[in-house]
Write a structure and sequence with these properties.
The complex is a heterodimer of chains A (428) and B (416). With 428 residues, chain A is α+β, with helices and mostly antiparallel strands. Chain A has an eight-stranded antiparallel β-sheet with strand order 2-3-4-5-1-8-10-9. In chain A, strand 4 and strand 5 form a beta hairpin. With 416 residues, chain B is of the alpha+beta class. Chain B folds into two domains: 90 residues, ATP:guanido phosphotransferase, N-terminal domain (Transferase Creatine Kinase, Chain A, domain 1); 257 residues, Creatine Kinase, Chain A, domain 2, CATH 3.30.590. Helices cover 31% and strands 16% of the residues of chain B. Chain B is built from 13 helices and twelve strands. In chain B, strands 4-5-6-7-3-10-12-11 form an eight-stranded antiparallel β-sheet. In chain B, strands 1-2 form a two-stranded antiparallel ribbon. A two-stranded antiparallel ribbon of chain B has the order 8-9. Classes of the chains: A alpha+beta (428), B alpha+beta (416). Chains A and B meet through helix 1, helix 2, helix 6 and helix 9 of A and strand 2, helix 1, helix 5 and helix 8 of B. Chain B: It is an enzyme of class 2 (transferase). Chain B: It is found in: Mitochondrion inner membrane. Chain B: Its EC number is 2.7.3.2. Chain B: Belongs to the ATP:guanido phosphotransferase family. Chain B: It is a peripheral membrane protein.
């Protein structure tokens, strides 16, 4: 009847018939039933929300038909995902229904930048890293300095192992900060969670944080309930986070249902802060003015350890394994998920021709004081560790402390018009 | 005969396969994991009440209509292409709305969405389309442009005339839900059909991924180019995924007939020209639409349409005719008259700035178009615009001469 028989239309009719007679189809297995009468339906497997949940429909199209056009793309995912790999992985799903297309959607929608290499994929749950390891292992390896699928990551949250760090020159270091993230095992991650799950994570977190005592005692501010006064205070303290605007985050579905179940917790001293359900289940931040990284890191470790204990008391652990360390939404934050940094004045050194090279050798990274992707203002830089995975927390903070000490020394030399070549570090 | 496809399991998980009962060979499997919970298990852990959205600060049609009871009934249902209620309403949850503008707050992922989720779509449709009840009423489709009268406006006032609508290709998911392959198929089907248009309708396709810099600039100068949506109403619904893959613009050589492919709908069809010859614009519109329909039918495709909802489009606000017929018209005196808005109301017309929806008027030139989409036919709506705009011009002329104007009585609603 049709001159140009479109396989698509024909294929589509068949499942249509199947679906209307047999009702819902399980996520993992489907069958055409020859009987059209009262076949009992599996109790609904409503695809857990968001994204291309209809993986089965896509299997009727060839891989070539579904494969994304990555010709103009420059991100880690695009470098790794060949047609062959797409074909291999596209029929897979994690137990909660997260698919390959869900993993890569943000990377497809955001081709990247010629100079900045973004990751281009996210995890929807802990199992993503396992089910799609053939894509994520090479991405991780590329992003994390050659970290191999067989490597083991070391976790060390003992602040006593940090040497020094309590005496960074406060004439140069304006503030000190350490942040990481934690995911609660058993719940889907922000790109994929349902409203019910996100609320459960919030409830658990608020209960756990509510049990903190001493200098960690604090209060929770839910984004959707806070008063105007509270909101203004949080803005003034630079604690408030807002709905993401970056297309990198929006395209992965992390901003759904905003501001439901999002909030900020901080201790009364305003030195320990937890973000709930922003880009990860939890983002944990320890910070204070001045240059006492030892104190900041000690509070960080103590706080994290206490929080982990409180969660365990409620029967929940953090997502962690010996290969990837702490599991977070973005592969770039695996391992420690740790960014330890300072706001430091380096007006002379930043103009020195070898500045970038020095940072590279020290395994440090610079940002503007507005955070990632901002420019430095008035010679003040945000300097932090570049690595996340393959080094322990203590090792990363040690590198930051030692590195910043050297940078300040070089700054002082340049102030006096002295040479700094002899201070050039070796590659760490 | 059973055909099954099974998921590939990773080593850590244990699969428990349970056979279904009955004459059918239906099989379902529940996957238990040590740490993760299967989707099947999640349903038991999270009843609909746990997932019910917080709509207390919301002001859109979906939020006005959704109740925990409806949500409970519909949350676990899926259309044949596995589209869910949560996916329909995500845009309305993410965009609470505006105190003065009531947005719709939900979209369809496929033709069946309107059926499977009728319990919420029907009241939303009723709210948006002035009480139109899809369960009892029928929508008239009429693309016979010969019925139009007085379709030539006074060009001292009317600067340009335009009619637009949308069409969806039956059998392929809509922009919020479609896979890349489906979207590319829409593009292929439509472009192939359009290449069969002849004479004054003959034209060319410009794919967003392949157009040259020069072509792009020309399309911008012609005001034809559409860009990646920035409105969160659209992006939250997932319509901008994989941009600009399989998106493009087709127009005839005379630049009076234009089709957008895979923007907010499978196709948006636009007929336009400078001046006030709305009759000719509508004639071309109808002829072009019918010709495109014929061409896709030759290859076994058809448009999504049914007798209750008319033409099926992504947004419920565009059901029925999906038609917006409008003019850019100068009304310097009338627009300052305090009765202007009331007159527009009674004429079932809407004003916008000349930049389109949500823009303000520049100078005294307004975009005037029909308010209604569903319950009246294309011919009725275009005639309504023609009669209405003629009345507005009449008022303007009267005011020029210092004469008084009267507020016209309200135009009849659709037959209930």
């Amino acid at each position: 009847m049709r001159m140009d028989s479109s396989a698509l239309l024909e294929n589509r009719q068949t499942p249509h018939r199947v679906h209307t007679t047999t009702g819902k189809i399980g996520i993992f297995v489907s069958a055409q039933s020859s009987s059209s009468s009262s076949t009992p339906q599996p109790t609904g497997t409503a695809a857990m929300p968001f994204g291309n949940s209809h993986n089965q429909l896509k299997m009727k199209f060839s891989s070539e038909q579904e494969y994304p056009d990555l010709s103009k793309h420059n991100n880690h995912m695009a470098k790794v995902l060949t047609l062959a790999l797409y074909e291999k992985l596209r029929s897979k799903q994690t137990p909660s229904g997260f698919t390959l297309d869900d993993v890569i959607q943000t990377g497809v929608d955001n081709p990247g930048h010629p100079f900045i290499m973004t990751v281009g994929c996210v995890a929807g749950d802990e199992e993503t890293y396992e089910v799609f390891k053939e894509l994520l292992d090479p991405v991780i390896q590329d992003r994390h300095g050659g970290y191999k699928p067989t490597d083991k990551h070391k976790t060390d949250l003992n602040p006593n192992n940090l040497k020094g760090g309590d005496d960074l020159d406060a004439n140069y270091v304006l503030s000190t900060r350490v942040r990481t993230g934690r995911s609660v095992r058993g719940f889907c991650l922000p790109p994929h969670c349902s409203r019910g799950e996100r609320r459960a994570v919030e409830k658990l977190s608020v209960e756990a944080l509510g049990a903190l005592t001493g200098d960690l005692k604090g209060k929770y501010y839910a984004l959707k309930n806070m008063s105007e006064a509270e909101q203004q205070q949080l803005i003034d303290d630079h604690f408030l986070f807002d709905k993401p605007v970056s297309p990198l985050l929006l395209a992965s579905g992390m901003a759904r249902d905003w501001p439901d179940a999002r909030g900020i917790w901080h201790n009364d001293n305003k030195t320990f802060l937890v973000w709930v359900n922003e880009e990860d289940h939890l983002r944990v931040i320890s910070m204070q003015k001045g240059g006492n990284m030892k104190e900041v890191f000690t509070r960080f470790c103590t706080g994290l350890t206490k929080i982990e204990e409180l969660f365990k008391n409620k029967g929940h652990s953090f997502m962690w394994n010996e290969h990837l360390g702490y599991v977070l939404t973005c592969p770039s934050n695996l391992g420690t998920g740790l960014r330890a940094g300072v706001h430091v004045k380096l007006p002379n050194l930043s103009k020195y021709r070898q500045f970038e090279e020095i940072l590279k050798r020290l395994r440090l990274q610079k940002r503007g004081t507005g955070g990632v992707d901002t420019a430095a203002v008035g010679g003040i830089f945000d300097i932090s560790n570049a690595d996340r995975l393959g080094f322990s927390e203590v090792e990363l903070v040690q590198m930051l402390v030692d590195g910043v000490k050297l940078l300040i020394e070089m700054e002082k030399r340049l102030e006096k018009g002295q040479a700094v070549e002899d201070l050039m570090p070796a590659q760490k | 005969m059973a055909s099954m496809f099974t998921r590939v399991l990773s080593g850590r998980n244990t699969a428990v396969i349970m056979a279904g009962l009955g004459a059918g060979t239906l099989v379902s499997s529940y996957i238990m994991t040590e740490s993760g919970v299967s989707a099947g298990e999640k349903k038991k852990l999270y009843p609909p009440s746990a997932d019910y959205p917080d709509l207390r600060k919301h002001n859109n049609c979906m939020a006005s209509v959704l109740t925990p009871a409806i949500y409970g009934q519909l949350r676990d249902k899926l259309t044949p292409s596995n589209w869910s209620l949560d996916q329909c309403i995500q845009t309305g949850v993410d965009n609470p709305g505006h105190p003065f503008i009531k947005t719709v707050g939900m979209v369809a992922g496929d033709e069946e969405s309107y059926e499977v989720f009728a319990e919420i779509f029907n009241p939303v449709i009723k709210d948006r389309h002035n009480g139109y009840d899809p369960t009892t009423m029928k929508h008239p489709t009429d693309l016979d442009s010969s019925k139009i009268t007085s379709g030539m406006f006074d060009e001292n006032y009317v600067l340009s005339s335009r009619v637009r609508t949308g069409r969806s290709i039956r059998g392929l998911s809509l922009p919020p839900a479609c896979t890349r392959a489906e979207r590319r198929e829409v593009e292929r089907v439509v472009v192939q059909a359009l290449s069969g248009l002849k004479d004054d309708l003959a034209g060319k396709y410009f794919s967003l991924t392949e157009m040259t810099e020069q072509e792009q600039q020309q399309l911008i100068d012609d005001h034809f180019l559409f860009d990646k949506p920035v409105s969160p109403l659209l992006t939250c619904a997932g319509m901008a995924r994989d941009w600009p893959d399989a998106r493009g613009i087709w127009h005839n050589n005379e630049k009076t007939f234009l089709i957008w492919i895979n923007e907010e709908d499978h196709t948006r069809v636009i007929s336009m020209e400078k001046g006030g010859n709305m009759k000719r614009v509508f004639e071309r519109f109808c002829r072009g639409l019918k010709e495109v329909e014929r061409l896709i039918q030759e290859r076994g495709w058809e448009f999504m349409w049914n007798e209750h909802l008319g033409y099926i489009l992504t947004c419920p606000s565009n059901l029925g005719t999906g038609l917006r017929a409008g003019v850019h018209v100068r009304l310097p005196l009338l627009s300052k008259d305090s009765r202007f808005n009331k007159i527009l109301d009674n004429l079932r017309l809407q004003k916008r700035g000349t930049g389109g929806v949500d823009t303000a008027a520049v100078g005294d030139t307004f975009d005037i178009s029909n308010l209604d989409r569903l319950g009246k036919s294309e011919v009725e709506l275009v005639q309504c615009v023609i009669d209405g705009v003629n009345y507005l011009i009449d008022c303007e002329k009267k005011l020029e001469k210092g004469q008084d104007i009267t507020i016209t009585p309200p135009v009849a609603q659709f037959k209930k």
